[in-house]
Amino acid sequence: MSTAPPGPDVLHTGSGTGDTLAAEAVALDLAHAATDLRRRFDLPEDVVYLDGNSLGALPVGVAEAVTDAVRVQWGRDLVASWNTHGWWEAPTRVGDAIGRLVGAAPGQVVAGDSTTVRLHQALHAAAALRPGADVVVTDPGSFPTDLYVTRGVADQVGWDVVLADPDEVPRTLADLAATGRRVAVVSLSHVDYRTGRLWDLPGLTRAAHDAGALALWDLCHSAGAVPVDLDDHGVDLAVGCGYKYLNGGPGAPAYVYAAARHLPHVRNVVPGWHSHARPFAMAPDHEPADGAARLRIGTPPVLSLLALEAALRAFDGVPVEAVRARSLSLTRFLRRCVAALVPGAAFVSPDDDDRRGSQVGVRHPDAYGVVQALVARGVVGDFREPDVVRLGVAAPYLTHAEMLVAARELAAVLAAGEHLDERWSRRATVT
Ligand SMILES: Cc1ncc(COP(=O)(O)O)c(C=O)c1O
Ligand SMILES: Nc1c(O)cccc1C(=O)C[C@H](N)C(=O)O
């Protein structure tokens, strides 16, 4: 199966519906040609890659940037590179580059470490900014690491964890206020990793503020795919990873955002020496640096930061609003193709554009087998417990033609019963 460039042969299904969809795919790809950034990525020709919400594709230029960082900066220039190649400033420089994609003015984002660590740090910062409050509100459907970290920090600072579906958060906040409870922070994911549900970040941020709480957002599944506009919406704290829609590579550095109004008061729970105002004074007492640098920790993963920095150039000249418009068109079309070719498909992701992130999920009792059979046919998605076939749509490098190919392959897998193959009876470690 070849998909690049997807021509009429690949698209032809031999059915009336298929022909109509094929013609539509061609028309939509023409209409969205300005945001087709496939040439900025190094993707295998024979794969429809629908897992960029787990691990983004490799952007052109990253391998060269890493080679230069290793051979020239590390290999030749050695320790001087901290100064001469800007290694020291990389966490805040890359943080600012991420900030451009999530609507944060410079000086509020720092990159490095993992989402897990950054969330831990952000929740502790919230605790220090809201002394006397003793509740954290979060979504029971959050990604597991978020639940574990939230419970862990709650134990450390003496909070109660109140679980509420994001739709129910305003009512939960009202109930808590009515019983005299003070909420420190509402901590939510912008897009649900399993369902692709996009939550109302502006409205829920306002609801948190109205209750006297801070709003903390996990942007793992929205940064680089959905406009976030952190500053415009008055978000207090945010975290996210670098390896999904930001395409920074496996284990790419994560990031933390603290709004400028909070930064002078933010306490860093892991105040390593890179967060010191004068690190090379080697002073025995910690004195926080100004700005986002106070959220640095210890020595950053320089090679990974430079890889992420090069990866972010894939977005150069393309506003995230344009990426979103392409993503909506792709997910809308994918949904329509699946509905047409797989009658009765049970969608888990919302139909409504305003409520859908950048993925389409379908429930199936043999979802794991369906995903494996799709992968065997060159359509790479992933399986999420308990029964979700998750198709992530990283708009910059995908086409409408590929959406149709994915739907056709899904229909073919189900028609042939390939999902029931014995090969899929043992699950891989990473699903
Ligand atoms: C919403 C969300 N938060 C956090 C994580 C993971 O955190 P970490 O990057 O520390 O593994 C993921 C994905 O792995 C995620 O989807
Ligand atoms: N972070 C991951 C990892 O370390 C290994 C395998 C997958 C991942 C992922 O990113 C999974 C992803 N957060 C998800 O939404 O399912």
Automatic annotation (TrEMBL):
Pfam families: KYNU_C (PF22580)
Entry GO terms, CC: cytoplasm
Gene3D superfamilies: Aspartate Aminotransferase, domain 1, Type I PLP-dependent aspartate aminotransferase-like (Major domain)
Keywords recorded for this protein, A-Z: Hydrolase, Pyridine nucleotide biosynthesis, Pyridoxal phosphate
GO annotation, biological process: anthranilate metabolic process; L-kynurenine catabolic process; L-tryptophan catabolic process to kynurenine; NAD+ biosynthetic process; quinolinate biosynthetic process
Domain of life assignment: Bacteria
Residue positions, PTM N6-(pyridoxal phosphate)lysine: K244
Reaction catalysis annotation: L-kynurenine + H2O = anthranilate + L-alanine + H(+); 3-hydroxy-L-kynurenine + H2O = 3-hydroxyanthranilate + L-alanine + H(+)
Cofactor requirement: pyridoxal 5'-phosphate
Binding site for pyridoxal 5'-phosphate: T115, T116, F143, P144, T145, D146, D218, H221, Y243, W273, T299
Pathway: Cofactor biosynthesis; NAD(+) biosynthesis; quinolinate from L-kynurenine: step 2/3; Amino-acid degradation; L-kynurenine degradation; L-alanine and anthranilate from L-kynurenine: step 1/1
SUPFAM superfamilies per UniProt: PLP-dependent transferases (SSF53383)
EC numbers on record: 3.7.1.3
GO molecular function: kynureninase activity; pyridoxal phosphate binding
Keyword 4Fe-4S: no
Role description: Catalyzes the cleavage of L-kynurenine (L-Kyn) and L-3-hydroxykynurenine (L-3OHKyn) into anthranilic acid (AA) and 3-hydroxyanthranilic acid (3-OHAA), respectively.
PANTHER family according to UniProt: KYNURENINASE
Similarity comment: Belongs to the kynureninase family.
Subunit structure: Homodimer.
Name of this protein: Kynureninase
Species the sequence originates in: Cellulomonas marina
Lineage: Bacteria, Bacillati, Actinomycetota, Actinomycetes, Micrococcales
